[in-house]
Structure formats: structure tokens, C-alpha cells
User: Fold these one by one.
Assistant:
Number 1:
Amino acid sequence: MSQYDEGHTVAGWTGTGIATVGSAVLGAGICVVSAPLMVGGLGILVAGLLVTWALHLSGWGKPSGPRPRGQWPMGVRDLTVRDGHPDCWGCRLAGRGRRTADVVAVAGEPAVAGEPAVAEAGSVGR
């Protein structure tokens, strides 16, 4: 068995199943030139994306990279997901994971550590 678990997660398999059905419905709609089937297939694909994302955020998806042997089985829930997985777009879209710098530069001015970067009205471009 691979140290990377090869994506064998509840979120991964559920998303794959829903996407397969959505692709089949979309393909059937294209073959018979049926707009309702095509829209339905696209709707199923979007639903599959949202279901997979929700399962990932609830701990049924796992981060990429090597994991301890105890986390290899598919039915093991990832309890570290509350903090977000590093370099995971799904976690970042949900407001989890790697945070950007606390201090943001204001319109070309370098940010100084410890100072909040708040722009006053009309102060941009001085």
C-alpha cells in the first residue's frame, strides 16, 4: 500500500460517483441534443463538487502527502481539518488553512511589522 493513500477517502469516492453520474447524464444530453438533460448533468456535476467539498471540510477528505499508517484506511476521519490543510484550495475557500500576512501594505507604502495597515480616505497615492 502506498504511503500517500492514493485519495481513498469517503469524500473522494463520493465525489467520483456523483461526477460519473453527472457526466453520463451530460453526455446523454449531448448525444440526444436535449437541453434539459445537459442542464441536469451540469447540475449533478455542481452538486457533486459541493458534496465533495462539504465532506472534505467535515473531515472525510485528507490532506495530500504522506500520512501515518493509522490514517491509511478509507474510513478514518481527519480531525486536523478544523485548522485547514496546508496548500489546500478547498480549505482556503472555506477560510481555513494557510493565512496570509497579518499586515498588508497600503498603496505602494511598505508595511511595517506591528503597525496596522489602514488606509485613510484620500491618503492613497500621497
Number 2:
Amino acid sequence: MAKSLGIIPTMLSRWVYEYEQHGDKAFIGNGVSVPNTELEIQRLQKRLEELELENEILKKIQEYSKRWEKSNTPSSGNTPRSTP
């Protein structure tokens, strides 16, 4: 069947699958398929994990920075002295 239509069999199978899943809403516009929501969810979950990791790193940097500033205040006695 696909050969008679001039397309590869996997393409026809994909179209049939998308039509079975989404009916008339499977193809909008010029044959653009409906976005795969599962892939979008996976992409967003991965992005969420990346952002959570970045957030943890930034929190640790901020904590380190605060400790460094605290240890180098005049009251700590650890401030560098300028020489005349």
C-alpha cells in the first residue's frame, strides 16, 4: 500500500497510528502532526532536573560567598591589611 502511494512503509504506519490516537485532530494544517505529549513531558522533566541542579549549585555558591564575606569582615580579624 505505501509503495503504491510513493511513501515508505514506516511513514504510513506512523500516519495510521496518529490517526488512531487522535482521529481528525491528528493532522492540522498541511499535515503537521499533533505534538507528542509524552515526548514533551520527558523533555520538560529533563529541563526541570537541569534547573533544579543549577538552583542547588547557585545556593551552594551563595552560601560559600556569605561564609567567605563573614570570615573576611573587620570584626573577624582576617581582613588583609594594607601596607603604607
Number 3:
Amino acid sequence: MHAPSPRPASFSAPGPLRGSIAVPGDKSISHRALMFSALAIGESRVEGLLTGEDVLATAAALRAMGAQIERGEDDVWRIHGVGVGGLLQPEGALDMGNSGTSTRLLMGLVASHAITATFTGDASLSKRPMNRVIEPLSLMGADVTATPGARGGTLPLMLRGISPAVPIDYRLPVASAQVKSAVLLAGLNTPGITRVIEPVATRDHSERMLRGFGAELDVEQGADGARIISIRGEAELRPQHIVVPGDPSSAAFPAVAALLVPGSEVTIANVGLNPTRAALFDVLRMMGGDIQFANPREVGGEPVADIVVRHSALKGIETPVDTVASMVDEYPILFVAAALAEGRTVARGLEELRVKESDRIAVMAEGLRAIGARVEELEDGLIIDGTGGDPLPGGATIAARLDHRIAMSFAVAGLVSRAAVTIDDMGPVATSFPGFTRLMGELGAVAA
């Protein structure tokens, strides 16, 4: 199987960005909607599901383990689940593509079933550490064989699940919604109560949605302020009708573009604003960004609003360390905003960015320097001295390292650069934001 050919592109803004768009469905919620529906008995319906490659990898893996998943002509997905404990032995390896979320959460699902699954992925995913999930799942009784000799436990790996698994109390050593969710999913089919202790709150889509499907799940606050999430195993999940809101991580790119391109005013409709996900918008407001939330409402237990963004003169800040977990995927585009702000932005506490689809600290520092930004790389973040709103020089080709968020961040940087900024490959953007180029075009950006 040959890797797809690179798709280089550059983006420019001949004038202000204006208009109203809707970004694709939330990736985190889309993954979980498919997984939990596959464990319910009966038909669940999901509207607004993200059809990016990462979510399609989740759907394919669940089909391989017995769930019936169909996308209707009305764009409503219908899932007939197998019930908790009902996953079947897949006949072949489960190809996770570029999706760390698919891999880690599905490892949790498989761990408490008496089946064996081999997980594979693309070159980028195969470098990402899985030991953080392997450790708690091994404590529950699963047996995992990762790539010999590789650091951090990497793909391809083989996971032999066990039923019944052993309930555990597990304190997260790193803030990770994926590890938390993997343990909770393993706990669904484990007798007794499985607990995850979370010192730093991470996105809580799993907790909200598991409750919606009928799982017995409780959240308490420990004496030390940690969240203690308890799930009672051998659950019976009820099918649901889910409407997936727009992904705030995707909305971040047109939002920052509107803040930076003079004269712009952009509305991004129907965006999920779960407080464990949407800290970027708070930080941009701290920098002076004109960002309003219109028509706030609740859809399926998730807060949703339309985001109205106007061009603003941004000021550098020291980003609050306590927001890292709730905007970890948005730092690459925040770095672009900082490069155009007035004064210095200091962002620390970002060690997790070094083990994403790429080393996002190093890759962003390298790329921003190449287009003329003043950047100092730290072990755990970046210091950026902004231009005060003046365009960046540009004039470079950026190696995005197969990382969708790096590619989109430099596409936005190109809108506020004097000379073209070429991204070496926009292909990976399809993993999370299919239609990115088209929607930016609707606002007035030009891709070449």
C-alpha cells in the first residue's frame, strides 16, 4: 500500500474574512458516539458525525468487532450495537491510521473482552507512546505485546483482553482524557467498580455521554481536589439519538484567522463549548480578542453556541498553566496568534505537545522562525515576541510532519504574511477537518 502523494498548498487573504460557516462535528464526541452506540443493544442514531479519517477508522474497527454501522443518505449514522461484553474477535488487524484517540479508547474496550486484537497505524501514529494506556490495562489483566525495542510502547501492538477483568483504582500520572476514557471503557465490562483519579481535569465527554447511555457513573472531588470518577461494570447501555456539535478545535483556525486579518468578521455556527475543551477562546479574550458567544444552548448534555469573531489588536500574555489540559490541541494556532500580537507571549507546561502527531513545540518553533517570527524554544513551551499586528515576512515552505494541526496553523499564518507560506502537505488535514480549504475559501481566503 503506497502512501498518498503530498498535497502542498499556500493560503492568502486578499481582503477581510467575512461570512458564516459551520465546522465539522466534534472529533472527540464523534469517536465516543460510535463506541458507546456499538456497546448499546438496539439502534442508535448520530447526526453531525465528523467524517474525517480518524473517526472512520473507529467505525471500521467497530464493524470488524461485530457492530453494524451505516451512514444513511440523510447523513444520519445508524448503529446497531452488540451490547457490553459482546465484541467479537476481529479477523484482521485494526488499522487506526493517524488516530491516537481511536487506538487508546479501543484498547480500553478490547481489554475487558476475551478477544485478541492487533492495532496498526501510520508512520506518525506508530511513534506515539502507548505505555500510558498499557500500564492500567495490564493492571486489569490484559496482556499487551508492543513493538520490541521501541521506547514508550508503540504500534503495531497486540492486545489480549480478559473477561472477567479486574476492577482497579487508577491515579492518572499525566493529564490525559484518552487514558481516563480507556480505563472507564475497560471498566464497563468489568465486575465491580473501576475508579479513575484525575489530579487535573481533562475533557469530560466520556463521563457525560456514558451517563446519557445509562451507565452508573459518579464523579466526586477528593480531599486533594482531584476528580474521582467511578463506573460500575457489567453495564447495560441504552441506544441514544445524538447530535454532534461543531468541533471547537476546528473552529479555532477560522477564529484566529478572523482575529488576525484586518477588517474581518466571522461567525462559526453551532460550536461545542464544553468548558473542558474551550479554554482557547478564554485565552484569546485575555489577549484582547473580540469573541462573542451568540445563541447559547445545550444539545445532548453539551453546551453549544455560535461564535462571532472580529479582527482585534492582540497583546502578548503569559498563558495560564491551568488551562493546558482544556486547550492542549489548540496551542499550535495560539502560537500563530502570539506571533502577530503586541509584546511577548510565554506558554509553558506544554510537555504533552512533544508526543502528539509531531513534536508540536519543536515543529512550530522551527516553522515560525522560518517565516520570520521571533521564537525561543523551551523544554516545556515557547516564548514568542509578536509583531504588533504587522504581517510576518513569510516566504518559506513548512514541513508539517504529517500533522493536521501544524498544517492548518501555517495555512492561517500564510493569511498574514507578506510572501507565500507553503505547507508541504495538506493531506493530513482530512483526519480532523475535511473541507477546511473550501470553508476558508467561503470566508474569502485563497488557496493556491
Number 4:
Amino acid sequence: MASIDRLLVANRGEIACRVMRTCRALGIETVAVYSEADRAAAHVAIADQAYAIGPARASESYLRQDAILDAAARGGAQAIHPGYGFLSENAGFAQAVQEAGLTWIGPRPESIRDMGDKQRARELAIAAGVPVVPGSGRFETGALDGIAQSADAVGYPLLVKAVAGGGGIGMRRVDQADGLMAVVEASQSMAAKAFGNGAVFLERYIPRARHVEIQVFGFGDGNAVHLYERDCSLQRRYQKIIEESPAPGLPAATRARMAQAAVDLCRATRYLGVGTVEFIVDAASFDFYFLEMNTRIQVEHPVTEMITGRDLVAMQIDLARGNLAMPEQDAIAASGHAIECRLYAEDPKRMFMPSPGRLTVFRPPAGLPGIRVDSGYREGDEITPFYDPMVAKLIAHGPDRDTARRRAADALRQFPVEGIRNNRDFLIACLEHPAFAAGDVHTGFVDLHGKGLC
């Protein structure tokens, strides 16, 4: 059993604030780290201690393992929670934390390493009996012999995907053979710059697809449970903007098979802690295929918290402290419907380009039924160009999908944001679009309806 009285959050913004709120509820003191750009940030203000770790660029601050470990030592932290992004899925950092005698609030380093390599993850899924999207082996930078033949075997259209990383970086669609090599080389270059690994693989493109993921929790001993699904199909540039649970229109049998497949993967790999198993679902046939597993807390985890009433961060910490008993699957109940909307500092009319600037007006709605707002910003704060432009997450819960949808739209209308271009009105338009209201969601929704949403 690990003693955790003080915890360092190796992150910034919304997720750092969110982890600190749970720590406070658990009676745990918190240590923040910050770059020069974040000296006056909200997460710094609410922490019990805070330490500077470098210049604004993430590569010189939030990605500096040595600086973060030094801050943990100076602050007397006994544990590190990585949040999402930055070092959260860095197996080397997880190992370094443990070697420093600290508790890592996350899965084992070997799980992070295995699932961080999409090809290795596919192999583990296949071994666990989980269906995967038809695809190829990996192709390293400069070693592309046989890629044309592999593409023919996979079939066009197809996706070129980076073996490492996520967030849609290094992923591009190819519709015909004469465009393959240029896209592969561009994807490899982008992946090498973003992840330090330019390897790619090919995967069959499913034209009318849904992105559905299963929230899982493993106990490291071959036991695991799921906390239901989230539909993350509404995306722009392969990145999620609206997530919800339950997934609208998903047949009960498909939902059950997906949840079981996710649990089977966790059991087979003896997974420890919070994770998300992501699937692509054919919107016509409801066949589903494993995409990847994220070995961290997800941006959209509040959706699951709203329908289950369980604090996933508290579960992570309690597991690390040895205080969490494995719940029976039947004891994990889901109630109502939840929808999360990601509010970004970006311009939907200009291809969702980031829009840094000062939040001259920023007033999250308060006291509305079924509404939760998670943010790492306050009125007057500066949105810098150095980090992800997400400003806040607004989560609505209701007894049914239509109530949650209307609550989300109404709450967004009561959320004034000025000083930056943002996607608030775009989110409202998505929520109120007849196709979304009818549950007709798929990954091509924004491309199909985009002109009527801006």
C-alpha cells in the first residue's frame, strides 16, 4: 500500500485543475509545475505548492522529465499523476518515476509501451480474440519495399497511420494508388517530428464509420471491469469535439460485445488502472474493430463520471494506495445520458485554426441543472500559442439524450466567451442539427454538414 499525502500533477490547464480538485477531496496536498507562460495559470493558483520547470515551449518544460522529477523531490511529493497528453503515455517517464521511489498514477510502463505502439497493440488485440481493422505491417522511414502491394491487399481507400502517437497526427487518407507514396512520406515526416518515430502502417478506411470507445479499469491481476461506452464520432481533423454516452442507436448486442472485447483485452494483458479501448464501428453493419488503447485518463472521462457517478481520478489514486476493492461488473450502474462539448480557441470558419489571445470575457454558467464545466482558465487569462487550444469542457447530463442535448446547447448559450475566436456557436449548431438530434452521428458528420454549421 502506497502512502500518498502529497501528489505532483505533471500537467497544466484543465486536467491539472481537475486532478487537484479530487486530491483536495481526498485530503491530498498538491504540487503544480509550470512553464514561464503559465506562471499565473489557474492550476498554479489552486495547488499547495508550485515550481517553475522551464520556458514556454513544452519541449523545454512540460516534457522535461528531469525538471518534473526535481520538482517532485523539492515539493516532497510521493506520487505523480500525468493527466493526459505530454508525458502521460511515456513509458520511460513512468519507469523513471518508479525508479525515483515515487508512485506512478497510471498503468505499468510495459503496458504503456505495448499500447503506444499501434502495431504491437493490434497483435495483442488479435491474441485476445478482439477483431481489428484489416491492415498492413509497419513501414519504417526509408524502408518502403512492398508497400504498394500491401496497399493493394488492404484495398482503397485506406488510411496511412503513424505507429506512435495519436490525436490524428500522421494519419491521412489515400483514395488511389498514384497518391500513396507522397502521403506515406508526408505522414512519416510528420510522425517523426511529433513523436520521434516515423514508422507508419496502412489500415482499411471505413467510409461511414463511428468512433466508439469503452472505458475500462484493470486491477493488474487479470481482472477488469468496464464503465460503459462513449461515442466520440463527432470530430474535426480526426480530433474529437463532442462525446456522449450511451452511444445513440447502438444495438444492445453490439454494445455488449464491444464491452466484453475491451475487458478481454485488459484481462489478457493484465492491465492496471484506467484505460480506454477505442473501436471503429461500421455505421451500416455495426461490425466493430479495435483501433487502439489509450493508457491514461481521457479528455472525455467526465461523460463516464456523469452517467456512473464514479470519480475516475479518485479510483486511480485509491488503486495506487491499495484502497480500491474490485467492484462487481453488475454493481457498476449507468444512469441517463451525458454529452461533453469541447470549447476551443479556434476559428471554425478558417479550418479550425487556433486563435490565441486574452479571454476578456469568460463566464462559465453556474447553477444550471445537470451541467458541469471543467476548465483551466479564468476571465483575463491569456490563451497562448504554445499548447492545445482547448479552453473548457461543458458536460450536460439528463435522464435521456434529448434532455442532455438541449441542456448542453442552452448552457453554451449562457457561456459568454470574448477576446478570442472560438467554436461555441459551432458546437450549438452541431447539437441542434436535425441529423445530430436524430442520433445520425459518424466521423464524417462535420465534413458532410460543415457549411451549415459555421
